Amino acid sequence: MLKVHIQDKTFANGHCALRDLHLEARPGELVAIVGPSGAGKSTLLKIICGLDTQFQGQVQLPEPAQLGFMFQEPRLMPWLTVEQNLMLVNKTLTGARLTEALKRVGLGDCADLYPGQLSGGMQRRVALVRAFSVSPQLLLMDEPFQSLDAPNAEQLRAHLLELWQATRPTVLFVTHNLSEALSLADRVLFLTAGPSRVALEVPVDLPRPRSQHAPAVQAMRHDLLTRYPDLLKGNATPAA
Amino acid sequence: MSEELNRPLAVPAASWSRAWPLLALVVFWQLVAMQAHSRVLPTPIAVFSVLWSEVVTGDLLMHLGKTVTRVAISFVLAMLLGVALGILMGRSRRWDRLLDSFLVLGLNIPALVTTILCYIWFGLSETAAIVAVVLNKIPMVAINLREGARAVDSSLMEVADVYRLSRSERFFRVYLPQLYPYLFSSARNGLALIWKIVLVVELLGRSDGVGFQIGSFFHFFDITSILAYTLAFSAVIFLLEAVLLRPLENRLNRWRV
């Protein structure tokens, strides 16, 4: 079980990013976190993974606390090959297992290439493989498919779901794209504008796989935005 | 069959394009020297023959060996200390403020002054010679590496932290590779500078080494021998560049496509 209780996160410059933010996630649950930009979503993930310890509150990670993180940019080491990048985080990932992991995302013959030789979409697939290669109990994703074109993003979401269903880590998926959140998640949390807390929680009980453009997803999106017109601006006040 | 035999003998085009300007220089030198017919400009042929006789007697190799050893020791020490200092100053504002004036001072004090002071304070010893060279070089390495340490990409360091890499992996596979370009430019111009300083240091207070020899030749106005030693010396530098620096640089830069 992942339990996050943050009373207060204020930066040294006095900017308060998070206040009274509480969230929990069951093992194997895929939770999307949607909030306006500047709502402290990245800060929240940094606190959960332990990169940021300057806050008031508690974070309880699932056991064993093995963590994967996929950032907005692929963040591969440019001087290491794909294989070396993956082995950097997991030394046992060699030979056939490595090829197998890369094949799953359609990168079967890329082990010896450097990140600079790959397209943006391919680099993100390597980053996705890296995140899963440590067998995480908790996978944090910070708008990982944001700067991709639509077909590439769709492809990566499909790979993410495949990998997630195979090993079932808890996933926190931060995005500002409501359709993306609804197409992926078991549950969507909406954050308020800063200082952020959880404004609304919406379970998504639609069968998978669901495309972003599936009528059910779009209907749910439409319904949510009709009921809470300012939801994506961080305001969950119902329409009058 | 004949092709296979020829292959090992064939010189790659790149080597030729590096070598021919040097050959042209030697030919030009020969022509000018023949025209001038002066004691202060011996012909390359005369220089090569002195070079050869010095090689045969063993003198040149002994002195060259001494100099190369001093260069190697000073180079390694100056790089290690300079890199450590540069990283420290690039990472910590406090250390940077504390040490910055020393760096500026060290950069600007003439090599001659450091050398003479070292000899006076520590005696005309090997240690004093090495210390003088190292002190002259450290500030340049440190300034270069400080720049590199400031430019280190914190987002890649976050990856190392999130995936809990060991300290040595974090340093050698994530941190240090970001400093390679700075390390390389330091090593290149470092080696160049150290050669020059070592010769001055030898001239002032050692009784062997290329610098000492050139000093003696100067007293006898023996230009031919000075040029012969300079030539031997250049050969070593070209050798180092070709067998050490360039291959290493190519290897470390393989990922840049």
Helical proportion of chain A? 25-40%
DSSP summary: helix tally of chain A? 7
The computed structural class of chain B is mainly alpha
Helix and strand content put the structural class of chain A at alpha/beta
Mean pLDDT of chain A: 92
N-to-C span of chain B: 36 Å
Percent helix among the residues of chain B?
Answer: over 70%
Overall geometry of chain A comes to globular
Distance between the amino and carboxyl termini of chain A: 37 Å
| CATH topology type of the largest domain in chain A | Rossmann fold
Task: State the order of secondary-structure elements of chain B, H for helix, E for strand.
Answer: HHHHHHHHHHHH
Contiguous runs where pLDDT drops below 50 for at least 5 residues of chain A: none
The 3D shape of chain B can be described as globular
Total helical segments of chain B: 12
Mean pLDDT over the full residue set of chain B? 89
> Biggest interface: chains and residue counts?
A-B, 21 and 19 residues
CATH architecture of the largest domain in chain A: 3-Layer(aba) Sandwich
Strand and helix layout:
The complex is a heterodimer of chains A (240) and B (257).
Chain A: E1 2-10, E2 16-25, E3 30-34, H1 41-49, E4 56-60, E5 67-70, H2 82-89, H3 95-104, H4 120-133, E6 138-142, H5 150-167, E7 170-175, H6 178-184, E8 187-191, E9 198-203, H7 215-227
Parallel strand pairs in A: 3-7, 3-8, 5-6, 6-7
Antiparallel strand pairs in A: 1-2, 1-4, 8-9
Helix pairs in contact in A: 2-4, 4-5, 6-7
Chain B: H1 2-6, H2 13-36, H3 44-57, H4 59-91, H5 93-108, H6 111-122, H7 126-150, H8 154-162, H9 167-175, H10 180-205, H11 210-219, H12 223-252
